[in-house]
C-alpha cells in the first residue's frame, strides 16, 4: 500500500541560510516520537495493531467496564444490522425487479422493505448509543491517567527533579502522553467501528454473491491508499515545519506579552522582531501553499484511479449481469455496499494511523510512570513526635552529573531551643545542607539522626510535619493572600499555632495585605479576574508568614530577608529568635543577622570549615571574620563619607 514518505530534516531547507539572525532552536522533547512515526510504514504500523488494541482496551476496561463493553458491543451489534440491512435491501430490489404489475411487486417487497427500514433504524439507534458510551469513556480515561500521573509526580523524591532525564520524561508524559491516552481508546473504538463496518459489508456482499467481494475490494482500495498517503504527507510536512513555527510562536509571544512589553519599548526592538516575524510568516505561507498543491495532486490522482476502479466495477458487474451470473438486484446492492465499505475503510485507516501515533506518546507516559514509581521513597515506619536534637554525622550529597559533592562530610548538631546559622559564599553548600536537614534530600553519604534514630527509619510524613522551610526560591502560588499563608498547614483545623493574621503580623505582612483591594481574600495572580501583583519583597513577607503559620519544631530559613526592606527585616528577625520548643536553622549573607545565633557554621566548597559563636569566630580569624569585616567596612565607608566631606 502506501510507501513511506521520508521526512525532511526539521529545519526547512527553504529557509535561506543566514536570513534569520536568531540562533538555532533545539528540537522539542516530543519530536523523537513524531520522527519515529514518519519513518514507519503503514504496514509496520498495522502489524503492531493487536498489541496496541489490547493496551487500549485494558486501559478502558480498568477505567469503566460498562462503558467499554457498551462502546464495543453496540458497535458490533450495529455491524450485524448493517449486514442484515444490505441483505434485506437485496430482497426488496429482487421483488421490485421481478416481472408482474407494479402494485403486486411493491406488495411483495413490503416485508423485506420493513426489515430493511427496521435494520437502518436499529443501526442508527445502536450507533448513537455506542457514541454516547464512547463519549462517556474518554473523559473518565483522561481523568484516570491524569490522577495517576499527579499522584506519582507529587510523591517522588525531590532529588528526582535534579535529574535532567527525569524532568524531560515528565514533560513528555504531561505534554502528550496524558492527552493521547483518551485518543488511544477513542481511536481503538473507531478502528473497531470501521473494521466491523467493513466485515459487515463484506459478509453481506459474499452472501449475495461471492464474486462481488473481490470487485468491492478493488473498487475501494484506491481511496484508502490516497487517504493514507495524504495523512502521512501532512504529518511529515508538519514535522519539517515545526522548528520554524515554534520560532514564529516565540516571536509572537515576545511581541504580545506583558512581561516583555517594557524592555521591547525601552530598547526599540519592535522593528527587529517584526522583520523576523515577517520572514517566518513568508516562509511558512510558502510551505503551506506547497503542501496544498502536493495534496491536491495526490487527491486528484487518487480520485482518478478511484473513478477508473469504479468504472471497472461497473464493467465487471455488467458482464456478470449479461452472463446471468449475478442477478440485477444483487448488482444494485453491491453498489450500495461499495459506498458503505468506503466509509468504513476510511474510518479504519485513519484510526490505525492515529492509534499508532497515540500509542507512541502513551508509551512515554507509561515509561515515565514506571520510572517515577521507582523513585517514591519507601521511608521508615517509626513514629516521630518532635525532637531534642538532630545530629548530622559526616553527611555528604552529590547532585547527579556533578564532579564534586555539594555537601562534603559535614557533621553538626541542631538542638531544640537553639538558633544556628549556616554562612559561606555563594555555592558553598548551605542550601543543600539545609535541605538535607529538612529531609528534602537523602544523604548520599553519612547519617542524620533524630534523637539517636536514623532519619531513614522514621515515618517521612511525620518527619516532614515537624519541619517548616522558608526557601529562597519560593513560588508565587496563584491563591489568595490568606490561602498563600494557610497552605503552610492547610489541614490545621483550629489546632494549636498562630492564626493567619498573627503569622502575617509577625512577618510584617499584615499591613501590606490589608491594603490590597480585597484584603486577605485578594487573589495574587493577574491571570485571574481581580488578581493582583505583589513586589518581590511583599511576596517574601508572605512566604515568611506561611513559614511562621506552619508552627513547626524545626524552622529552616534560607535567606528569609533577601528582598525585605530594613524595617520588615528587623520585624521578621524579632520572631526568629530563640524559642524553647523550636530549633531555627538560619542561612543568610547579611552577617549582622547571625551575630546572636547560638552557633554559626561556616561552609566553604561543601565542607564545614569553622564553627562557634560570633565572638569566638571573630577572635579566631579566617573566612567568617573576613566576610564579616568586608560587609562591616561597606557600612562604615558609607557612613564615613559625608563626615569626610563636611
Ligand atoms: N539542583 C542542583 N543540581 C545540581 N547542582 C546543584 C543543584 N543545586 C545546587 N547545586 C550546586 O551545588 C553547590 C551548592 O549549592 P547550594 O545552593 O547548596 O549553595 P549555597 O551555599 O546555598 O549558595 P547561595 O549562597 O548562592 O545560595 C553549587 O555548586 C551549586 O551549583
UniProtKB/TrEMBL annotation:
ABC transmembrane type-1 domain residues: 69-357
Localization of this protein: Cell membrane
InterPro entries, A to Z: AAA+_ATPase (IPR003593), ABC1_TM_dom (IPR011527), ABC1_TM_sf (IPR036640), ABC_transporter-like_ATP-bd (IPR003439), P-loop_NTPase (IPR027417), Type_1_exporter (IPR039421)
UniProt xrefs under Pfam families: ABC_tran
Domain ABC transporter as annotated: residue spans: 390-630
UniProt keyword Metal-binding, yes or no: no
Entry-linked SUPFAM superfamilies: ABC transporter transmembrane region (SSF90123), P-loop containing nucleoside triphosphate hydrolases (SSF52540)
Region: Disordered, residue numbers: 1-22
Signal sequence annotation: none
Membrane-topology descriptor: Multi-pass membrane protein
GO MF annotation, one: ATP binding
Superkingdom, natural source: Bacteria
PANTHER family linked: ATP-BINDING CASSETTE SUB-FAMILY B, HAEMOLYSIN SECRETION ATP-BINDING PROTEIN
UniProt name for this protein: ABC transporter ATP-binding protein
Amino acid at each position: 500500500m502506501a510507501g513511506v514518505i521520508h521526512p525532511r530534516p526539521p529545519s526547512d531547507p527553504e529557509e535561506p541560510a543566514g536570513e534569520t539572525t536568531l540562533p538555532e532552536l533545539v528540537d522539542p522533547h516530543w519530536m523523537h516520537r513524531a520522527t519515529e512515526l514518519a519513518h514507519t510504514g503503514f504496514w509496520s504500523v498495522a502489524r503492531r495493531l493487536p498489541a496496541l488494541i489490547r493496551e487500549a482496551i485494558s486501559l478502558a476496561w480498568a477505567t469503566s467496564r460498562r462503558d467499554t463493553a457498551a462502546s464495543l458491543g453496540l458497535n458490533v451489534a450495529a455491524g450485524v444490522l448493517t449486514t442484515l440491512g444490505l441483505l434485506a435491501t437485496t430482497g426488496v430490489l429482487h421483488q421490485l425487479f421481478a416481472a408482474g404489475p407494479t402494485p403486486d411487486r411493491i406488495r411483495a417487497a413490503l416485508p423485506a422493505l420493513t426489515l430493511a427500514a427496521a435494520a437502518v433504524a436499529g443501526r442508527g439507534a445502536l450507533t448513537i448509543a455506542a457514541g454516547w458510551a464512547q463519549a462517556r469513556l474518554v473523559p473518565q480515561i483522561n481523568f484516570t491517567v491524569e490522577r495517576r500521573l499527579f499522584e506519582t509526580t507529587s510523591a517522588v523524591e525531590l532529588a528526582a527533579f535534579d535529574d535532567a532525564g527525569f524532568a524531560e520524561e515528565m514533560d513528555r508524559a504531561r505534554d502528550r502522553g496524558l492527552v493521547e491516552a483518551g485518543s488511544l481508546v477513542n481511536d481503538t473504538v473507531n478502528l473497531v467501528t470501521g473494521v466491523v463496518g467493513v466485515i459487515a459489508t463484506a459478509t453481506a456482499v459474499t452472501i449475495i454473491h461471492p464474486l462481488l467481494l473481490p470487485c468491492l475490494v478493488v473498487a475501494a482500495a484506491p481511496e484508502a491508499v490516497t487517504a493514507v498517503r495524504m495523512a502521512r504527507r501532512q504529518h511529515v510536512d508538519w514535522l519539517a515545519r515545526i522548528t520554524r513555527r515554534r520560532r514564529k510562536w516565540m516571536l509572537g509571544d515576545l511581541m504580545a506579552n506583558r512581561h516583555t512589553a517594557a524592555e521591547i519599548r525601552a530598547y526599540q526592538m519592535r522593528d527587529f522582531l517584526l522583520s523576523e516575524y515577517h520572514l517566518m510568516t513568508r516562509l511558512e505561507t510558502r510551505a503551506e501553499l506547497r503542501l496544498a498543491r502536493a495534496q491536491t495532486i495526490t487527491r486528484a490522482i487518487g480520485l482518478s484511479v478511484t473513478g477508473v476502479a469504479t468504472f471497472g466495477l461497473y464493467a465487471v458487474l455488467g458482464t456478470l449481469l449479461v452472463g446471468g451470473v449475478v442477478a440485477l438486484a444483487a448488482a444494485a446492492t453491491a453498489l450500495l455496499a461499495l459506498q458503505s465499505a468506503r466509509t468504513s475503510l476510511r474510518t479504519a485507516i485513519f484510526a490505525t494511523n492515529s492509534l499508532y501515533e497515540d500509542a507512541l506518546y502513551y508509551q512515554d507516559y507509561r515509561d515515565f510512570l514506571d520510572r517515577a514509581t521507582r523513585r517514591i521513597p519507601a521511608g521508615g515506619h517509626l513514629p516521630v513526635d518532635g525532637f531534642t536534637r538532630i545530629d548530622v554525622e559526616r553527611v555528604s550529597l552529590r547532585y547527579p552529573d556533578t564532579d564534586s559533592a555539594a555537601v562534603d562530610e559535614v557533621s553538626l548538631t541542631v538542638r531544640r531551643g537553639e538558633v544556628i546559622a549556616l554562612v559561606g559564599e555563594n555555592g558553598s553548600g548551605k542550601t543543600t545542607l539545609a535541605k538535607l536537614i529538612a529531609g528534602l534530600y537523602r544523604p548520599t553519604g553519612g547519617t542524620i539522626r533524630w534523637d539517636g534514630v536514623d532519619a531513614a527509619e522514621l515515618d517521612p510524613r511525620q518527619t516532614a510535619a515537624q519541619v517548616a522551610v522558608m526557601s529562597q526560591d519560593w513560588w508565587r502560588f496563584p491563591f489568595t493572600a490568606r490561602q498563600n499563608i494557610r497552605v503552610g498547614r492547610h489541614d490545621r483545623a483550629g489546632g494549636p499555632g498562630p492564626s493567619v493574621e498573627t503569622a502575617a503580623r509577625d512577618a510584617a505582612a499584615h499591613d501590606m495585605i490589608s491594603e490590597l483591594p480585597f484584603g486577605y481574600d485578594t487573589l495574587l495572580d493577574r491571570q485571574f479576574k481581580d488578581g493582583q501583583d505583589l513586589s518581590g519583597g511583599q511576596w517574601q513577607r508572605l512566604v515568611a508568614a506561611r513559614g511562621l503559620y506552619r508552627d513547626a519544631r524545626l524552622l529552616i530559613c534560607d535567606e528569609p530577608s533577601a528582598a525585605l526592606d530594613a524595617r520588615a527585616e528587623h520585624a521578621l528577625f524579632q520572631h526568629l529568635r530563640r524559642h524553647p520548643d523550636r530549633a531555627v536553622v538560619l542561612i543568610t549573607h547579611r552577617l549582622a543577622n547571625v551575630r546572636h545565633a547560638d552557633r554559626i557554621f561556616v561552609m566553604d566548597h561543601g565542607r564545614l570549615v569553622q564553627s562557634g559563636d560570633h565572638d569566638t569566630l571573630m577572635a579566631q580569624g579566617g573566612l567568617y571574620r573576613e566576610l564579616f569585616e568586608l560587609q562591616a567596612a561597606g557600612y562604615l565607608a558609607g557612613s564615613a563619607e559625608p563626615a569626610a566631606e563636611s
